[in-house]
Amino acid sequence: MLSSLIPAALSRLCLVASLLMMLSPAAQARSLLRDAGMEHGLNMMAQPLLVAAGLPANRTKVLVINDMSMNAFVVDSSHIFVNAGLILKARNAAELQAVFAHEIAHIANGHFSRRRLNAQSSRTVTGIGIALALAAGVGTNNAEVAAGLAAGAAGAAHSAFLAHTRAEEASADQSGMRYMARSGIDPRAMSQLLDHFEAQEAMSSVRRNPYTYSHPLSRDRKRAVADYAARLPDQDYDNTTADYWFGRAQGKLSAYLRSPGYTANRLAAGDDSDAALIQRSVAALVTPDYTAAQRYAAMLTARSPDDPYFHDLAGWVELESGRVDAAIAAYARAAELAPYEPLILAGYGRALMARNTAASRTQAREVLETARARDPFNARLLRDLATAYASEGENGMASVTTAERLALTGDLASAHVHAQRALGQLPTGSPGWNRAQDIARAAQSAGKRR
Fold first, then answer.
1. DSSP letter assigned to residue 155
2. 46: Cα separation from own chain's centroid
3. Which region is the signal sequence (predicted)?
């Protein structure tokens, strides 16, 4: 069943990539920031809101775009895209959950399907590309499509979108606040969040954050949100659990993106909370100070030996420090605790490849294939899997996997070369051959459109 689904998905990705060729270099430079622990923390914050909206708790995932501007959006029912800058700007879990609640309301209210029709009615290729892109290309390490939207790639069609989305945004605010109240989250955090966007309204239309194009003006939204919040019944809100996950996710992201000095200056000397130790470990890794990074990661795993994401962090630290056997052991424990987490499996496979023995390469291929089955749009994973195939003499599979990775990153010319190579190496009609043919056809079609 998997093999029958993947070619269609890759075809959509290749079509999307052809649209990306039209984007500015700045737009194409953005990427997704993938990390198992960070994504888990964000998803834990989103899950109660999904339940409150009547949606499956585990179907919709939060993904982070490496962009320091403030933006968030959905274009399908399976993913919420949030810029790193918005996560770092949030002052507490409730503010970030207000973002999630708003975007979840778009899903629950069916706005995605209507936006897709709006995109088609805009009569621009960009509008159609938005729907195609984020429906299929969200798991890659290169999210140019999401970046294209965030960078205003839909600018030519924005007036057509606004005629529809302003009413949708207002209803999403109200629905989102209801979800927050049902989840025990203070709905007034929605108003606090909008404080961050007010400054955008004073900027010229040339410099304005794209968030403000498809969302109602902050003053109008704040007034409506405040009026609605005043009508909600008073209650006590305890968001302790969400604040814990927020601290872990935001802290890890901040320590990775910001300088080690910035992290050190904002942590109290005696703070040994989980979030603080995560930040200290990542900041030390970035420095690099591998001894300190290992020490803080070891403190986390000793404190919570059944937390797979602490072992995942330990594996990352050990692998970066060149302690391959220790990295394998850490990732193996993480995978044992979270056997269905593809980002952990990807790290485990990468560590096994680093051991570079015949047995470890074979095991790595098996682990990476499992990870790919759960997250087929992870470009770094595909690179590692292609290397594993090549090391075992499976050159055809290495070629098609490389073609997939290149297609995901928008390099269709190179993807076409590797797809053609795979077609000459794989049995006609095999799953790998079909995948290669799909990429080759999509690349040819994209070349004609250019």
1. G
2. 14
3. 1-29
Q: Same domain for 300 and 444?
A: yes
| Structural domain count of the chain | 2
Co-location of 161 and 118 in the same domain: yes
Alpha-carbon distance 318 to 290, whole Å? Answer: 8
Two tokens, residue 416: 């076409």
Give the single-character DSSP code of 110. Answer: T
Q: Is 427 exposed, middle or buried (0-12, 13-18, 19+ CB in 10 A)?
A: exposed
Which one-letter DSSP state was computed for residue 416? H
Peptide bond into 427 cis (omega under 30): no
State the burial class of residue 282 (Cβ atoms within 10 Å of its Cβ: 0-12, 13-18, 19+).
buried
Question: CA 391, 392, 394, 397 torsion: positive or negative?
Answer: negative
Question: Is 435 inside a domain boundary?
Answer: yes
In a domain, 98, yes or no: yes
Reported as half-sphere exposure (CB side, CA atoms, 13 A), residue 357 has a value of 7
Q: Can you tell me whether residue 82 is helix, strand or coil?
A: strand
Q: Where are the alpha helices (DSSP H) in 53-206?
A: 84-89, 93-108, 111-121, 125-136, 144-150, 158-182, 189-201
Structure tokens at 272: 């040994």
Q: What residue type is 108 in one-letter code?
A: A
Confidence of residue 209 (pLDDT cuts 50, 70, 90): low
Residues 234, 283 within the same domain? no
Calpha distance 142→154 (Å, rounded): 19
Question: What string of DSSP letters covers 337-383?
Answer: H-TT-HHHHHHHHHHHHHH--HHHHHHHHHHHHHHHHH-TT-HHHHH
User: How far is 260 from 321, CA to CA, in rounded Å?
Assistant: 17
Distance (Å, whole) CA 140 – CA 138: 6
Q: How far apart are the first and last CA of the chain?
A: 33
Give the pLDDT confidence of 63-106 residue by residue, as tens digits: 888 888 888 888 778 888 898 999 999 999 999 999 999 999 99
Q: What is the CATH number of the domain that holds 99?
A: 3.30.2010.10
94 and 226 co-located in one domain: yes
Tokens of 195: 């404080």
Query: In which domain, by residue range, is 173 found?
Result: 31-240
